[in-house]
Write a structure and sequence with these properties.
The complex is a heterodimer of chains A (288) and B (272). By secondary structure, chain A is mostly helical. Chain A contains twelve helices and no strands. Chain A has one domain: MetI-like (MetI-like fold, Orthogonal Bundle). In chain A, α9 runs antiparallel to α12 and α10 crosses α11. Chain A is globular and about 75 Å long. The two termini of chain A are 33 Å apart. The C terminus of chain B is likely disordered. In chain B, 47% of the residues are buried. Chain B folds into two domains: 39 residues; 212 residues, MetI-like fold, CATH 1.10.3720. Classes of the chains: A mainly alpha (288), B mainly alpha (272).
Protein backbone atom coordinates (compact mmCIF):
# COMPACT_ATOMS: atom_id res chain seq x y z
CA UNK A 1 0.00 0.00 0.00
CA UNK A 2 1.15 3.49 -0.74
CA UNK A 3 0.93 7.07 0.34
CA UNK A 4 -2.51 6.92 2.00
CA UNK A 5 -1.57 3.85 3.98
CA UNK A 6 1.66 5.48 5.05
CA UNK A 7 -0.19 8.56 6.28
CA UNK A 8 -2.53 6.41 8.35
CA UNK A 9 0.37 4.49 9.88
CA UNK A 10 2.20 7.70 10.66
CA UNK A 11 -0.84 9.06 12.51
CA UNK A 12 -1.25 5.74 14.31
CA UNK A 13 2.40 5.89 15.41
CA UNK A 14 2.53 9.55 16.41
CA UNK A 15 -0.65 9.91 18.44
CA UNK A 16 0.19 7.19 21.01
CA UNK A 17 3.83 8.29 21.21
CA UNK A 18 2.78 11.91 21.74
CA UNK A 19 0.45 10.71 24.49
CA UNK A 20 3.25 8.78 26.19
CA UNK A 21 5.45 11.86 25.94
CA UNK A 22 2.76 14.07 27.49
CA UNK A 23 2.34 11.71 30.46
CA UNK A 24 5.95 10.66 31.08
CA UNK A 25 8.59 12.56 29.10
CA UNK A 26 7.17 16.03 29.72
CA UNK A 27 6.79 15.55 33.51
CA UNK A 28 10.25 13.97 33.67
CA UNK A 29 11.83 16.93 31.88
CA UNK A 30 9.97 19.46 33.99
CA UNK A 31 11.13 17.47 37.03
CA UNK A 32 14.74 17.72 35.92
CA UNK A 33 14.28 21.48 35.50
CA UNK A 34 12.71 21.65 38.98
CA UNK A 35 15.65 19.80 40.48
CA UNK A 36 17.98 22.63 39.43
CA UNK A 37 15.80 25.31 40.98
CA UNK A 38 16.51 26.68 44.44
CA UNK A 39 15.58 30.34 44.36
CA UNK A 40 17.16 30.63 40.91
CA UNK A 41 19.18 28.16 38.88
CA UNK A 42 21.57 26.29 41.14
CA UNK A 43 23.02 22.96 42.18
CA UNK A 44 21.95 23.48 45.79
CA UNK A 45 19.40 20.63 45.72
CA UNK A 46 22.00 18.15 44.51
CA UNK A 47 24.48 19.47 47.06
CA UNK A 48 21.91 18.91 49.80
CA UNK A 49 21.19 15.36 48.63
CA UNK A 50 24.87 14.45 48.29
CA UNK A 51 25.61 15.70 51.80
CA UNK A 52 22.65 13.87 53.34
CA UNK A 53 23.68 10.71 55.18
CA UNK A 54 20.19 9.30 54.64
CA UNK A 55 20.61 9.58 50.86
CA UNK A 56 23.73 7.40 50.90
CA UNK A 57 22.03 4.92 53.18
CA UNK A 58 19.08 4.82 50.77
CA UNK A 59 21.50 4.30 47.87
CA UNK A 60 23.22 1.42 49.64
CA UNK A 61 19.91 -0.16 50.66
CA UNK A 62 18.61 0.22 47.12
CA UNK A 63 21.56 -1.65 45.62
CA UNK A 64 21.57 -4.35 48.31
CA UNK A 65 17.82 -4.96 48.00
CA UNK A 66 17.93 -5.02 44.21
CA UNK A 67 20.97 -7.31 44.04
CA UNK A 68 19.88 -9.86 46.60
CA UNK A 69 16.24 -10.01 45.57
CA UNK A 70 17.28 -10.44 41.92
CA UNK A 71 19.56 -13.32 42.92
CA UNK A 72 16.84 -14.95 44.96
CA UNK A 73 14.09 -14.60 42.37
CA UNK A 74 16.32 -15.85 39.54
CA UNK A 75 17.26 -18.94 41.52
CA UNK A 76 13.61 -19.59 42.36
CA UNK A 77 12.30 -18.55 38.93
CA UNK A 78 14.69 -20.88 37.16
CA UNK A 79 13.69 -23.78 39.40
CA UNK A 80 10.00 -23.13 38.83
CA UNK A 81 10.45 -22.71 35.09
CA UNK A 82 12.31 -26.01 34.87
CA UNK A 83 9.64 -27.63 37.03
CA UNK A 84 6.81 -26.31 34.87
CA UNK A 85 8.60 -26.75 31.56
CA UNK A 86 9.67 -30.34 31.90
CA UNK A 87 6.70 -31.87 33.68
CA UNK A 88 4.21 -32.49 30.97
CA UNK A 89 1.20 -32.81 33.23
CA UNK A 90 1.62 -30.00 35.73
CA UNK A 91 -1.51 -29.82 37.77
CA UNK A 92 -3.54 -26.70 37.26
CA UNK A 93 -3.34 -26.14 41.02
CA UNK A 94 0.45 -25.91 40.94
CA UNK A 95 0.36 -23.65 37.94
CA UNK A 96 -2.09 -21.22 39.48
CA UNK A 97 -0.25 -21.38 42.80
CA UNK A 98 2.99 -20.37 41.07
CA UNK A 99 1.24 -17.44 39.43
CA UNK A 100 -0.87 -16.40 42.39
CA UNK A 101 1.40 -13.81 44.03
CA UNK A 102 1.67 -12.16 40.62
CA UNK A 103 -2.06 -12.35 39.98
CA UNK A 104 -3.33 -10.77 43.16
CA UNK A 105 -2.94 -6.97 43.37
CA UNK A 106 0.45 -5.91 44.69
CA UNK A 107 -0.98 -3.96 47.59
CA UNK A 108 -3.15 -6.89 48.68
CA UNK A 109 -0.14 -9.17 48.65
CA UNK A 110 1.92 -6.66 50.64
CA UNK A 111 -0.89 -6.12 53.13
CA UNK A 112 -0.98 -9.84 53.92
CA UNK A 113 2.83 -10.00 54.04
CA UNK A 114 2.78 -7.20 56.63
CA UNK A 115 0.24 -9.05 58.79
CA UNK A 116 2.42 -12.16 58.62
CA UNK A 117 5.63 -10.35 59.61
CA UNK A 118 4.34 -7.93 62.28
CA UNK A 119 5.77 -8.43 65.81
CA UNK A 120 2.44 -9.98 66.83
CA UNK A 121 1.86 -11.49 63.43
CA UNK A 122 1.36 -14.98 62.10
CA UNK A 123 5.02 -15.88 61.64
CA UNK A 124 5.93 -15.03 65.22
CA UNK A 125 2.75 -16.83 66.27
CA UNK A 126 3.96 -19.94 64.47
CA UNK A 127 7.39 -19.59 66.10
CA UNK A 128 5.72 -19.27 69.49
CA UNK A 129 3.69 -22.40 68.84
CA UNK A 130 6.93 -24.18 67.97
CA UNK A 131 8.40 -23.08 71.29
CA UNK A 132 10.70 -20.43 69.82
CA UNK A 133 10.96 -16.73 70.60
CA UNK A 134 9.64 -14.00 68.34
CA UNK A 135 11.82 -12.18 65.82
CA UNK A 136 11.59 -8.48 64.94
CA UNK A 137 11.13 -9.08 61.21
CA UNK A 138 10.26 -5.48 60.46
CA UNK A 139 12.27 -3.57 63.12
CA UNK A 140 12.98 -0.17 61.55
CA UNK A 141 16.56 0.25 60.43
CA UNK A 142 17.54 -3.35 61.20
CA UNK A 143 19.21 -5.82 58.86
CA UNK A 144 16.28 -8.13 59.46
CA UNK A 145 13.89 -5.54 58.00
CA UNK A 146 16.11 -5.32 54.92
CA UNK A 147 16.06 -9.10 54.62
CA UNK A 148 12.26 -9.16 54.99
CA UNK A 149 11.88 -6.62 52.17
CA UNK A 150 14.15 -8.73 49.96
CA UNK A 151 12.32 -11.99 50.64
CA UNK A 152 8.84 -10.46 50.20
CA UNK A 153 9.88 -8.76 46.96
CA UNK A 154 11.32 -12.02 45.62
CA UNK A 155 8.20 -13.92 46.70
CA UNK A 156 6.08 -11.40 44.82
CA UNK A 157 8.02 -11.26 41.52
CA UNK A 158 9.32 -14.78 41.12
CA UNK A 159 6.26 -15.64 38.97
CA UNK A 160 7.18 -12.96 36.42
CA UNK A 161 10.72 -14.33 36.16
CA UNK A 162 9.28 -17.84 35.88
CA UNK A 163 7.06 -16.81 32.97
CA UNK A 164 9.89 -15.09 31.11
CA UNK A 165 12.24 -18.05 31.56
CA UNK A 166 9.48 -20.47 30.63
CA UNK A 167 9.20 -18.58 27.35
CA UNK A 168 12.91 -19.21 26.81
CA UNK A 169 12.60 -22.91 27.65
CA UNK A 170 9.96 -23.36 24.96
CA UNK A 171 12.53 -22.44 22.30
CA UNK A 172 14.81 -25.39 23.12
CA UNK A 173 14.24 -28.28 20.69
CA UNK A 174 13.37 -31.54 22.46
CA UNK A 175 15.73 -33.46 20.15
CA UNK A 176 18.71 -31.80 21.84
CA UNK A 177 17.76 -33.36 25.16
CA UNK A 178 17.30 -36.74 23.48
CA UNK A 179 20.72 -36.49 21.88
CA UNK A 180 22.35 -35.42 25.15
CA UNK A 181 20.68 -38.31 26.95
CA UNK A 182 21.89 -40.78 24.34
CA UNK A 183 25.39 -39.43 24.78
CA UNK A 184 25.11 -40.29 28.46
CA UNK A 185 24.58 -36.80 29.88
CA UNK A 186 22.92 -36.80 33.29
CA UNK A 187 20.27 -34.35 34.38
CA UNK A 188 22.81 -31.83 35.69
CA UNK A 189 24.95 -32.05 32.57
CA UNK A 190 21.86 -31.48 30.42
CA UNK A 191 21.04 -28.40 32.49
CA UNK A 192 24.59 -27.08 32.21
CA UNK A 193 25.24 -27.73 28.51
CA UNK A 194 21.81 -27.62 26.88
CA UNK A 195 19.32 -25.65 28.94
CA UNK A 196 21.39 -22.74 30.24
CA UNK A 197 23.10 -21.75 26.95
CA UNK A 198 19.75 -21.72 25.17
CA UNK A 199 18.16 -19.79 27.99
CA UNK A 200 20.65 -16.93 27.78
CA UNK A 201 18.48 -14.46 25.77
CA UNK A 202 15.53 -15.00 28.10
CA UNK A 203 17.81 -14.63 31.12
CA UNK A 204 19.12 -11.30 29.88
CA UNK A 205 15.63 -10.02 29.04
CA UNK A 206 14.39 -11.02 32.50
CA UNK A 207 17.45 -9.48 34.13
CA UNK A 208 16.83 -6.17 32.39
CA UNK A 209 13.14 -6.07 33.19
CA UNK A 210 13.45 -7.23 36.76
CA UNK A 211 16.59 -5.22 37.42
CA UNK A 212 14.73 -2.03 36.58
CA UNK A 213 11.76 -3.00 38.75
CA UNK A 214 14.02 -4.00 41.63
CA UNK A 215 15.86 -0.67 41.54
CA UNK A 216 12.69 1.39 41.62
CA UNK A 217 11.22 -0.61 44.51
CA UNK A 218 8.75 1.56 46.42
CA UNK A 219 5.53 0.02 47.69
CA UNK A 220 7.13 -3.05 49.27
CA UNK A 221 9.27 -0.83 51.49
CA UNK A 222 6.48 1.63 52.21
CA UNK A 223 3.98 -1.02 53.31
CA UNK A 224 6.35 -3.32 55.22
CA UNK A 225 8.59 -0.93 57.14
CA UNK A 226 7.45 2.58 56.30
CA UNK A 227 9.60 5.08 54.41
CA UNK A 228 12.02 5.56 57.33
CA UNK A 229 12.30 1.87 58.24
CA UNK A 230 14.45 0.81 55.31
CA UNK A 231 14.95 3.91 53.17
CA UNK A 232 15.51 3.29 49.45
CA UNK A 233 15.82 6.04 46.85
CA UNK A 234 12.11 6.07 45.89
CA UNK A 235 10.90 6.29 49.48
CA UNK A 236 13.62 8.82 50.32
CA UNK A 237 12.35 11.06 47.51
CA UNK A 238 8.73 10.42 48.47
CA UNK A 239 9.40 11.47 52.05
CA UNK A 240 11.11 14.68 50.98
CA UNK A 241 8.15 15.40 48.74
CA UNK A 242 5.20 14.52 50.93
CA UNK A 243 6.46 14.91 54.52
CA UNK A 244 9.32 17.41 54.33
CA UNK A 245 7.59 19.42 51.56
CA UNK A 246 10.86 19.87 49.66
CA UNK A 247 9.73 19.10 46.09
CA UNK A 248 12.89 20.41 44.43
CA UNK A 249 15.22 18.34 46.61
CA UNK A 250 12.91 15.34 46.13
CA UNK A 251 13.22 15.78 42.38
CA UNK A 252 17.01 15.90 42.63
CA UNK A 253 16.93 12.58 44.49
CA UNK A 254 14.59 10.95 41.96
CA UNK A 255 16.72 12.20 39.06
CA UNK A 256 19.65 10.41 40.70
CA UNK A 257 17.54 7.24 40.81
CA UNK A 258 16.61 7.60 37.14
CA UNK A 259 20.31 8.04 36.29
CA UNK A 260 21.24 4.97 38.33
CA UNK A 261 18.62 2.88 36.51
CA UNK A 262 19.67 4.11 33.08
CA UNK A 263 23.36 3.45 33.75
CA UNK A 264 22.80 -0.04 35.13
CA UNK A 265 20.46 -1.09 32.31
CA UNK A 266 22.97 0.19 29.76
CA UNK A 267 25.55 -1.97 31.55
CA UNK A 268 23.29 -5.01 31.17
CA UNK A 269 22.81 -4.26 27.46
CA UNK A 270 26.58 -3.96 26.94
CA UNK A 271 27.08 -7.17 28.88
CA UNK A 272 24.58 -8.89 26.62
CA UNK A 273 26.38 -7.69 23.52
CA UNK A 274 29.68 -8.91 25.02
CA UNK A 275 28.19 -12.29 25.83
CA UNK A 276 27.23 -12.49 22.16
CA UNK A 277 24.99 -15.02 20.48
CA UNK A 278 21.97 -13.53 22.24
CA UNK A 279 20.26 -13.14 18.89
CA UNK A 280 17.08 -11.17 18.42
CA UNK A 281 16.06 -9.80 21.80
CA UNK A 282 12.72 -10.96 23.09
CA UNK A 283 10.16 -8.22 23.52
CA UNK A 284 7.84 -10.30 25.63
CA UNK A 285 9.09 -8.52 28.71
CA UNK A 286 7.31 -5.35 27.65
CA UNK A 287 4.02 -7.12 28.19
CA UNK A 288 4.85 -8.23 31.73
CA UNK B 1 15.81 -43.98 35.54
CA UNK B 2 19.12 -43.02 37.07
CA UNK B 3 19.53 -41.94 40.67
CA UNK B 4 20.02 -38.38 39.46
CA UNK B 5 16.71 -38.43 37.58
CA UNK B 6 14.87 -39.84 40.55
CA UNK B 7 16.37 -37.21 42.85
CA UNK B 8 15.24 -34.54 40.42
CA UNK B 9 11.71 -35.90 40.31
CA UNK B 10 11.58 -35.82 44.09
CA UNK B 11 12.91 -32.24 44.17
CA UNK B 12 10.19 -31.23 41.74
CA UNK B 13 7.46 -32.77 43.83
CA UNK B 14 8.78 -31.05 46.97
CA UNK B 15 9.06 -27.72 45.18
CA UNK B 16 5.50 -27.83 43.91
CA UNK B 17 4.16 -28.58 47.41
CA UNK B 18 6.16 -25.62 48.74
CA UNK B 19 4.82 -23.35 46.03
CA UNK B 20 1.21 -24.25 46.64
CA UNK B 21 1.68 -23.64 50.38
CA UNK B 22 3.45 -20.31 49.81
CA UNK B 23 0.50 -19.06 47.77
CA UNK B 24 -2.39 -20.69 49.56
CA UNK B 25 -1.49 -19.60 53.10
CA UNK B 26 -1.55 -15.81 52.46
CA UNK B 27 -4.78 -16.09 50.52
CA UNK B 28 -6.33 -18.11 53.34
CA UNK B 29 -5.20 -15.57 55.95
CA UNK B 30 -6.68 -12.74 53.91
CA UNK B 31 -10.08 -14.41 53.64
CA UNK B 32 -9.99 -15.38 57.32
CA UNK B 33 -9.21 -11.82 58.45
CA UNK B 34 -11.95 -10.38 56.27
CA UNK B 35 -14.50 -12.66 57.92
CA UNK B 36 -13.48 -12.61 61.60
CA UNK B 37 -14.51 -10.00 64.19
CA UNK B 38 -11.97 -7.28 65.04
CA UNK B 39 -11.37 -8.71 68.53
CA UNK B 40 -10.08 -11.95 67.06
CA UNK B 41 -7.91 -10.23 64.48
CA UNK B 42 -5.87 -8.57 67.22
CA UNK B 43 -5.60 -11.70 69.39
CA UNK B 44 -2.21 -12.92 70.58
CA UNK B 45 -1.14 -15.58 69.83
CA UNK B 46 -2.83 -15.21 66.44
CA UNK B 47 -5.93 -17.25 65.77
CA UNK B 48 -5.36 -19.56 62.80
CA UNK B 49 -8.88 -20.92 62.50
CA UNK B 50 -11.78 -18.49 63.02
CA UNK B 51 -13.93 -19.15 66.08
CA UNK B 52 -16.74 -16.93 64.87
CA UNK B 53 -17.55 -15.46 61.49
CA UNK B 54 -18.93 -12.04 60.64
CA UNK B 55 -19.92 -10.21 57.49
CA UNK B 56 -19.60 -6.78 59.14
CA UNK B 57 -16.43 -5.81 57.30
CA UNK B 58 -17.64 -6.92 53.89
CA UNK B 59 -20.97 -5.18 54.43
CA UNK B 60 -19.17 -1.97 55.36
CA UNK B 61 -17.37 -2.05 52.01
CA UNK B 62 -20.67 -2.07 50.13
CA UNK B 63 -22.75 -0.02 52.55
CA UNK B 64 -21.43 3.39 51.61
CA UNK B 65 -18.91 5.79 53.07
CA UNK B 66 -15.21 5.84 52.37
CA UNK B 67 -14.92 2.23 51.25
CA UNK B 68 -17.60 2.19 48.59
CA UNK B 69 -16.57 5.63 47.34
CA UNK B 70 -13.07 4.25 46.76
CA UNK B 71 -14.50 1.18 45.05
CA UNK B 72 -16.50 3.31 42.60
CA UNK B 73 -13.61 5.71 41.98
CA UNK B 74 -11.26 2.80 41.27
CA UNK B 75 -13.73 1.35 38.78
CA UNK B 76 -14.21 4.71 37.01
CA UNK B 77 -10.46 5.34 36.78
CA UNK B 78 -9.77 1.81 35.56
CA UNK B 79 -12.44 1.91 32.84
CA UNK B 80 -11.19 5.27 31.53
CA UNK B 81 -7.58 4.07 31.61
CA UNK B 82 -8.51 0.84 29.83
CA UNK B 83 -10.33 2.73 27.05
CA UNK B 84 -7.36 5.05 26.54
CA UNK B 85 -4.81 2.22 26.59
CA UNK B 86 -6.83 -0.03 24.28
CA UNK B 87 -7.54 2.67 21.67
CA UNK B 88 -3.98 4.02 21.62
CA UNK B 89 -2.51 0.52 21.92
CA UNK B 90 -4.52 -0.57 18.87
CA UNK B 91 -3.17 2.34 16.85
CA UNK B 92 0.43 1.77 17.90
CA UNK B 93 0.17 -2.00 17.54
CA UNK B 94 -1.19 -1.65 13.99
CA UNK B 95 1.48 0.85 12.92
CA UNK B 96 4.17 -1.41 14.37
CA UNK B 97 2.77 -4.50 12.67
CA UNK B 98 2.61 -2.92 9.20
CA UNK B 99 5.81 -0.87 9.05
CA UNK B 100 9.30 -1.96 10.18
CA UNK B 101 10.38 1.63 10.87
CA UNK B 102 7.33 2.22 13.07
CA UNK B 103 8.16 -1.06 14.80
CA UNK B 104 11.70 0.04 15.69
CA UNK B 105 10.55 3.45 16.87
CA UNK B 106 7.61 2.07 18.83
CA UNK B 107 9.67 -0.58 20.57
CA UNK B 108 12.30 1.94 21.66
CA UNK B 109 9.63 4.27 23.02
CA UNK B 110 7.93 1.42 24.90
CA UNK B 111 11.25 0.18 26.30
CA UNK B 112 12.12 3.69 27.47
CA UNK B 113 8.78 3.82 29.27
CA UNK B 114 9.73 0.69 31.19
CA UNK B 115 12.95 2.28 32.46
CA UNK B 116 11.23 5.27 34.02
CA UNK B 117 11.07 5.23 37.83
CA UNK B 118 7.50 5.97 38.89
CA UNK B 119 8.54 8.53 41.49
CA UNK B 120 10.48 10.65 38.97
CA UNK B 121 7.39 11.11 36.78
CA UNK B 122 4.74 11.20 39.50
CA UNK B 123 6.06 14.13 41.52
CA UNK B 124 6.36 16.64 38.66
CA UNK B 125 3.10 15.27 37.20
CA UNK B 126 1.39 16.20 40.45
CA UNK B 127 2.62 19.78 39.97
CA UNK B 128 1.34 19.81 36.39
CA UNK B 129 -2.03 18.37 37.40
CA UNK B 130 -2.44 20.98 40.15
CA UNK B 131 -1.94 23.61 37.48
CA UNK B 132 -4.47 21.88 35.18
CA UNK B 133 -6.92 21.50 38.09
CA UNK B 134 -6.83 17.72 37.64
CA UNK B 135 -4.95 16.93 40.87
CA UNK B 136 -6.83 14.87 43.49
CA UNK B 137 -10.23 15.38 41.86
CA UNK B 138 -13.41 13.47 42.67
CA UNK B 139 -13.52 12.16 39.09
CA UNK B 140 -9.91 10.92 39.22
CA UNK B 141 -9.43 11.94 35.57
CA UNK B 142 -5.79 13.01 36.00
CA UNK B 143 -4.90 9.63 37.49
CA UNK B 144 -6.90 7.78 34.81
CA UNK B 145 -4.92 9.49 32.04
CA UNK B 146 -1.58 8.42 33.56
CA UNK B 147 -2.87 4.90 34.11
CA UNK B 148 -3.81 4.81 30.43
CA UNK B 149 -0.22 5.65 29.51
CA UNK B 150 1.11 3.07 32.00
CA UNK B 151 -1.00 0.31 30.48
CA UNK B 152 -0.28 1.37 26.90
CA UNK B 153 2.96 -0.62 26.32
CA UNK B 154 1.45 -3.98 27.27
CA UNK B 155 -1.72 -3.29 25.26
CA UNK B 156 0.30 -2.23 22.21
CA UNK B 157 2.54 -5.32 22.33
CA UNK B 158 -0.47 -7.61 22.70
CA UNK B 159 -2.30 -6.04 19.75
CA UNK B 160 0.90 -5.92 17.71
CA UNK B 161 1.10 -9.69 18.11
CA UNK B 162 -2.49 -10.04 16.87
CA UNK B 163 -2.11 -7.69 13.86
CA UNK B 164 1.11 -9.34 12.70
CA UNK B 165 -0.76 -12.62 12.21
CA UNK B 166 -3.26 -11.08 9.75
CA UNK B 167 -1.96 -11.39 6.15
CA UNK B 168 -1.31 -8.03 4.52
CA UNK B 169 -2.50 -9.42 1.15
CA UNK B 170 -6.09 -9.14 2.33
CA UNK B 171 -5.67 -5.42 2.95
CA UNK B 172 -3.89 -4.95 -0.38
CA UNK B 173 -6.75 -6.62 -2.25
CA UNK B 174 -9.29 -4.35 -0.54
CA UNK B 175 -7.14 -1.33 -1.41
CA UNK B 176 -7.13 -2.31 -5.09
CA UNK B 177 -10.91 -2.48 -4.88
CA UNK B 178 -10.88 1.19 -3.90
CA UNK B 179 -11.33 1.14 -0.13
CA UNK B 180 -9.49 3.80 1.87
CA UNK B 181 -6.79 2.66 4.34
CA UNK B 182 -8.84 3.87 7.31
CA UNK B 183 -11.95 2.00 6.12
CA UNK B 184 -9.87 -1.13 5.55
CA UNK B 185 -8.46 -0.88 9.05
CA UNK B 186 -11.82 -0.29 10.71
CA UNK B 187 -13.98 -2.71 8.74
CA UNK B 188 -11.60 -5.44 7.64
CA UNK B 189 -8.67 -5.69 10.04
CA UNK B 190 -10.03 -4.53 13.38
CA UNK B 191 -12.88 -7.07 13.58
CA UNK B 192 -10.32 -9.87 13.23
CA UNK B 193 -8.50 -8.97 16.44
CA UNK B 194 -11.59 -8.84 18.65
CA UNK B 195 -10.25 -11.27 21.26
CA UNK B 196 -6.94 -9.41 21.52
CA UNK B 197 -8.88 -6.16 21.98
CA UNK B 198 -10.84 -7.71 24.82
CA UNK B 199 -7.66 -9.07 26.42
CA UNK B 200 -5.93 -5.68 26.12
CA UNK B 201 -8.94 -3.97 27.69
CA UNK B 202 -9.09 -6.37 30.62
CA UNK B 203 -5.33 -6.27 31.25
CA UNK B 204 -5.30 -2.46 31.13
CA UNK B 205 -8.28 -2.32 33.48
CA UNK B 206 -6.47 -4.58 35.95
CA UNK B 207 -3.20 -2.65 35.66
CA UNK B 208 -5.02 0.52 36.71
CA UNK B 209 -7.09 -1.27 39.34
CA UNK B 210 -3.86 -2.56 40.97
CA UNK B 211 -1.72 0.56 40.61
CA UNK B 212 -0.45 2.01 43.88
CA UNK B 213 2.37 4.56 43.43
CA UNK B 214 0.78 7.12 41.12
CA UNK B 215 -2.54 6.72 42.93
CA UNK B 216 -0.87 7.50 46.25
CA UNK B 217 0.82 10.63 44.92
CA UNK B 218 -1.88 12.02 42.63
CA UNK B 219 -5.04 11.28 44.66
CA UNK B 220 -3.96 11.85 48.29
CA UNK B 221 -7.48 12.44 49.63
CA UNK B 222 -9.83 11.11 46.95
CA UNK B 223 -8.32 7.66 47.24
CA UNK B 224 -8.64 4.67 44.96
CA UNK B 225 -8.62 1.16 46.45
CA UNK B 226 -4.86 0.43 46.64
CA UNK B 227 -3.91 3.56 48.66
CA UNK B 228 -6.95 3.04 50.89
CA UNK B 229 -5.90 -0.57 51.54
CA UNK B 230 -2.44 0.77 52.36
CA UNK B 231 -3.78 3.28 54.90
CA UNK B 232 -6.06 0.73 56.58
CA UNK B 233 -3.23 -1.83 56.69
CA UNK B 234 -0.64 0.51 58.16
CA UNK B 235 -2.94 2.38 60.54
CA UNK B 236 -4.56 -0.70 61.87
CA UNK B 237 -8.09 -1.67 60.84
CA UNK B 238 -7.35 -5.31 60.05
CA UNK B 239 -10.90 -6.36 59.21
CA UNK B 240 -11.66 -3.43 56.91
CA UNK B 241 -8.25 -3.65 55.22
CA UNK B 242 -8.70 -7.37 54.53
CA UNK B 243 -12.30 -7.03 53.36
CA UNK B 244 -11.24 -4.25 51.03
CA UNK B 245 -8.25 -6.29 49.83
CA UNK B 246 -10.49 -9.29 49.22
CA UNK B 247 -13.00 -7.22 47.25
CA UNK B 248 -10.21 -5.74 45.14
CA UNK B 249 -8.48 -9.08 44.56
CA UNK B 250 -11.60 -11.05 43.61
CA UNK B 251 -12.27 -9.56 40.14
CA UNK B 252 -8.56 -9.75 39.34
CA UNK B 253 -8.34 -13.42 40.21
CA UNK B 254 -11.48 -14.31 38.27
CA UNK B 255 -10.44 -12.34 35.18
CA UNK B 256 -6.85 -13.55 35.14
CA UNK B 257 -7.67 -17.20 35.69
CA UNK B 258 -10.23 -16.96 32.88
CA UNK B 259 -7.62 -15.23 30.71
CA UNK B 260 -4.88 -17.72 31.57
CA UNK B 261 -4.59 -19.14 28.03
CA UNK B 262 -4.22 -15.68 26.49
CA UNK B 263 -1.79 -14.61 29.20
CA UNK B 264 0.34 -17.69 28.92
CA UNK B 265 0.39 -17.37 25.21
CA UNK B 266 1.15 -13.69 25.27
CA UNK B 267 3.85 -13.88 27.89
CA UNK B 268 5.69 -17.07 27.16
CA UNK B 269 4.66 -18.15 23.68
CA UNK B 270 3.10 -21.23 25.19
CA UNK B 271 -0.12 -22.42 23.68
CA UNK B 272 -2.32 -25.25 24.65
Amino acid sequence: MNRHGRLLRLCFLCIPLAYLASQFAFPLISGVVMSFQAGGLSLANYRFVLHDRLFWQACANNLVVAGLSLGLEFALGLSFALLLGSMRGVSIVTEIAILLPFLIPEIVFLSVARYILLPRGYLNGALLAAGLGGVGWLDPGSRMALASVIVVDAWHVTPVVTLLLLGGLQTIPAELYEAARLDGAGALARLRYVTLPFLRPALFAALLLRGVDALRIFSTVLVLTGAEGTPVLSTYAYQLWSDALEPQIAMAASVMLALLITLLSLAVLVLRRRAGGAGEPSWDYLAA
Amino acid sequence: MSVEDRLLAFARRALSVLVVAASAVPLYLLIKQALTPELESFAWPPVWFPRSLTLTHLRAVIAGGELSVALILSAKVAVTAAVVATVLGTMLGYAMARDPRCRALGLSALSATRLLPMIAAAMPLATILIWLRLYDTISGLGLALVHGALALPAAAILLFGAFVKIPIELEQAAYLDGASPLAIFLRLTLPQVRSALAAAFVLSFLASWDEFGFALLLQPTNRTLPPLIYYYTVFGDVGAASALALVSAAPVLVALIALRPVLFHGLSGRSR
